[in-house]
Amino acid sequence: MTQENPTFSEHQRSVPFALKPIPLGEELEWKDVMVQRYAKITDIATFKRYSLSFLRKSVRVNTLKTTVDAVKKSLGKEWDMVQVPWCKEGFWVQHRGGRLDIGNTVEHALGQIYVQEAASMIPPVVLDPQPGELVLDLCAAPGSKTTQIAQYMQNRGVLVANDITADRLASLGINLQRCGVVNDIITQMHGMRDVQFDRILLDAPCSGTGTIRKSLKTLRTWSINATRKMCTAQRHLLRDVWPMLKKGGTLVYSTCSLEPEEDEGMVSEFLGRTPDADIIPITLDIKHGPGITSWEGVDYDPRVKDTLRLWPQDNDTEGFFIAKITKVSRTAD
Predict the structure, then answer these.
(1) Phi and psi at residue 123, in whole multiples of 5°?
(2) Cα-only R_g, the chain
(3) How far apart are CA 240 and CA 293, in angstroms?
(4) Which residues are catalytic, by number?
(5) Residue 98 has pLDDT above 80, yes or no
(6) Quick one: pLDDT at residue 16?
(7) Residue 4: which pLDDT band, with cuts at 50, 70 and 90?
(8) Are 89 and 61 in contact (CB under 8 A)?
(9) What per-residue confidence (pLDDT) applies to 165?
């Protein structure tokens, strides 16, 4: 059930939501080092304007419980719903009376919708899991992408939802149950080297610089040292998960970071030490920035140009990075 290259009319693309600045956002302090870094790779004024504006609310229809048409009929009585171009089950929503608590609707309580940021829907779409496969979501909690993977699998096959943080497993289990997922196994493990998966999602822990507009504290907590620590964790996760992927299988690596070291740099480094890894170009109907092929004097593997880098201003979403990697039959020279 491939989901790539959806097409939509210009009417469906029109989004009636005005960009709304976060109150007092202009008074927040940006670290000079961060601004200088990002000014090299994007329009910094536009990036700051979007990062200090409210994020549009979006939901994904859970087709394990209902249909898109049914939700449009019920939820659409009070909420304007605008199609997310890259996910046919995704919609930006806005209540006609100003209500904000989409999570308190009957549709949400019944598991018919999942409140999920629009850019967060991309990794499972790119992963393209199929019914009957063996799939791993390595860092699964709280379950937005896990439940999306399950609906694409149509509850057939086996979906291993793993997270190493114990207190996050409760929310993962609750969300899987609410959404009617029955083909899942929840685990708390660092590795499963004796298992071979058809597809793996590694939505890695990261510095979160793509999520400033919903987590303003990132402006305060960001540092180059913190980015380096995240790179260490990401490097270990990629190393540990690769043996679990079947030959010909697909690994999607994603972050909500905009740091080149965590994104193209991490993928480039992985490709350099992994001869049987190759990039699959991502073809989605989505605006995105160019893949960064060099950063601060370091040239990256040219294949990283086929990854997906999303700035908040590209589609009025969070910032995100996605790479689609396959395991090929190749040996080192």
Answers:
(1) -55, -45
(2) 19
(3) 25
(4) 256
(5) yes
(6) 52
(7) very low
(8) yes
(9) 85
Q: pTM of this prediction?
A: 0.93
The answer to whether the beta carbons of residues 259 and 207 sit under 8 Å apart is yes
Q: What percent of the chain has pLDDT over 90?
A: 85
Q: Do 290 and 308 contact (CB within 8 A), yes or no?
A: no
Q: The tokens of 144 are what?
A: 């937005």
Q: What is the pLDDT of residue 18?
A: 76
Give yes or no for a contact between 287 and 301, defined as CB atoms under 8 angstroms apart: no
Residue 249: what residue type? G
